[in-house]
Amino acid sequence: MNPMGRGGSGGWLADTGRSGDVVVSSRVRFARNLAGFRFPNRAPASERSAILARLKPVVLGSRLCHQLEWVDLSSTTSGHRSLLVEERLISRQHASGKPGEPMHARAVAIGLPDRRLSIMVNEEDHLRLQVIRGGFDLSGAMAEADRADDAIESRIDYAYSPRFGYLTACPTNVGTGVRLSVMLHLPALKITREIEKVKRAADDLGLTVRGSYGEGSEATGDFYQISNQTTIGKSEVVLLREMEHEIIPQVIQYERSARERLVRGGRRGLEDQVWRAVGVLLHARLLSTEEATNLLSRLRLGIALDLVPNLSLSLVNHMLVAVQPAHIQAAIGQELTQDQRREARATLLRTRLGEAFARGRPARLIRPDMPEEPEPPAGPSNRPNPDPDTGG
Amino acid sequence: MPSVKCDLCDAEATVHETQVVHGQVVVRRLCERHAAEVGITAHGVTLPHPPGSASVVLMARPATPTLKCDTCGLSFAAFRQHGLLGCPSCYESFEDKLTPLIERAHQGGTHHIGKSPKRLLAEAQGGDPRALERVLGDARERAERLALLRKQLEESLALEQYERAAALRDELRRFEAQTSGQSDEPGEPQGGRA
């Protein structure tokens, strides 16, 4: 199946949402387990199968959304699983399995058509239910996840204790079992080196700041994920209010002021960096995932600051996923070597961005919460010159 | 012998205290600092202990008694090694040892506050006392949670954290209504749903 064809791979990407200039996406995840079964890491294969058999009809029969796609991971290729990881619908751990743990009795249910809801079965916990939305919308994602959780719980008994709350395989998730994450694009805070302050402040508040693909990954392209560490002793409602009304808005404001300072302090220099990125994206013949991500990050900053006309943030959000290795492979439809992928990636970017520039000015992103740009429009020398051979 | 970590921090445990409380063996491993904090000195002075119990403090490392979960057989040592529990009952089996770990990992949180399974709650409010205990705990646990919520509310008001205070007030109202068994959905629903 062509991943670019089915709802554009990550329907939530199309929606840049609130504060889309800084926030890429918001995610809410619930960790839940069935009462009376061992956790997946300790359950033998037969018990994991029994858990799956118990949960499959519950998940599919709970009318969680318009339609659910059920993917039995044991019958998928590693390429298909990588696509789901890149789309952030399953974790790396769920796709690969820990050493000694077979792919056996693992599944994921994906909400259609928008692919915002996903429910992993037999990951670290029996159920990992998540909702992901474009832009800054934690409460929307929370309400959706909460409804799905209630629908499932109406038909099964969760492992729960009044003292410890929802019982999870790892005590770091026990209590509410809720993880709220916001993926932020913070290039200005990175440039001004204020990102370290954000990290320290977040740590003091019981939050973590990590690279965009979660634990242990570097923040390629200045995309950071801020999420809560505390899951017990603080209710999900309190956590949601703190993150949605206090903490994340402060980080957003902090990034916006850093951007304004960058523009004021050296507009030409910033424009130069952004347009150099555009130049490479429109003309390079070989691009690695990391380089493409870094260039798209610069372009994203340029669009958010109105330095680059004719392109939308939603296109960049899409491209950030589309340049990932499994997506490149799937778009071409055959096994590729790393070099072939680099070539295909460069071609894809040239084509898609070239087309977008050539199409002219699309509907602009509406950002009522952003102050008007005081700067006059850029000079004619800044008009892009679409690559003549983008068709190739 | 590999070094054993203190139950309260990452330092090496040099004090091993074995207490027998009402026939139950409770083992604590502490570093020098935390041992001193709870009143154990280098000379092996025993703590005051409740009647009917005995307490022995060993300065040398004893052969570690294997603490295991009755339900799934996971040993606490195995949990310490790979970080994952084996089954829901592990929380009960290892409660004493897990509590300080959980407290450290969650900014001091040791008791759940927040959502509870809705269907179970409805059953409890339908007058099933066993369901009430399963979802909100026995009378003592319910009182503890109420006290904890009130304390957090007072703290947040003192610190002028009004967003947090408002959410805690909602939480408190919901909990009070749930425990009094009057209504199943009095306050604002979970997750800020409209």
In short:
The complex is a heterodimer of chains A (392) and B (194). With 392 residues, chain A is an alpha+beta fold.
Q: What global shape of chain A is seen?
A: globular
SS strand fraction of chain A:
5-15%
Structural class of chain B: mainly alpha
Strand content of chain B: 5-15%
Distance between the termini of chain B: 59 Å
Query: What share of residues of chain A is helical?
Result: 40-55%
Taking Cα atoms only, what radius of gyration of chain B do you get, to the nearest Å?
21 Å
Describe the overall structure.
The complex is a heterodimer of chains A (392) and B (194). With 392 residues, chain A is of the alpha+beta class. Chain A has a domain at 264-368. Chain A has eleven helices and ten strands. Chain A has helices spanning 45-61, 78-86, 92-96, 138-153, 187-191, 195-204, 236-283, 289-304, 313-322, 325-332, 338-359, and strands at residues 23-32, 67-72, 107-112, 117-121, 127-134, 160-161, 165-166, 178-185, 207-211, 223-228. Chain A has an eight-stranded antiparallel sheet with strand order 2-3-4-5-1-8-10-9, covered by helices on one side. The longest helix of chain A is centred in the middle third of the chain and has 48 residues, at 236-283. Chain A is globular, with a radius of gyration of 22 Å. The model of chain A is unreliable at 1-8 and 362-392 (pLDDT under 50). Chain B is built from eight helices and three strands. In chain B, strands 2-1-3 form a three-stranded antiparallel sheet. In chain B, helix 5 (118-125) runs antiparallel to helix 6 and helix 7 runs antiparallel to helix 8. The longest helix of chain B is centred in the C-terminal third of the chain and has 20 residues, at 139-158. The N and C termini of chain B lie far apart (59 Å). The interface between A and B is large, with 53 and 53 residues.
